[in-house]
Fold this protein.
Amino acid sequence: MPEVNVEINGRKYRMACEEGQQKHLIGLAERLNNHVESLKGAVGEIGDNRLTVMAGIAVVDELAEAEKRIKALEEEVLVLTRAGQEVAAEIEALEGKFAAKLTDAAKALEGVAGALDEAAPVPQG
């Protein structure tokens, strides 16, 4: 199992990860370190453990907000999917009505054509 070195709050940590996940783990550690550094700039030196806990809570808060947004988007997709299905059903019904009207019009035209054929004088020749 590969290992990578990451740095959080000026300290290096050796971490194991799955093959191919090294860059991802380093990126996650960099994001956490950015939170720690941001908090350090906002609240000053408050101790490593407390700072790490605050950064972890900030990250979990971001995750919770993202989960709320995902749920709202999933609900919106569901509403839009239902609306799309209703529109598709309405279009299908309209197409059926249109096809029936076209059939009726074609029959009427055939009737007119037949009547014209019967009424037309037969050419003498």
Q: What stands out?
A: The mean pLDDT is 92. Helices lie at 22-43, 48-119. Residues 35 and 44 are 13 Å apart (CA to CA).
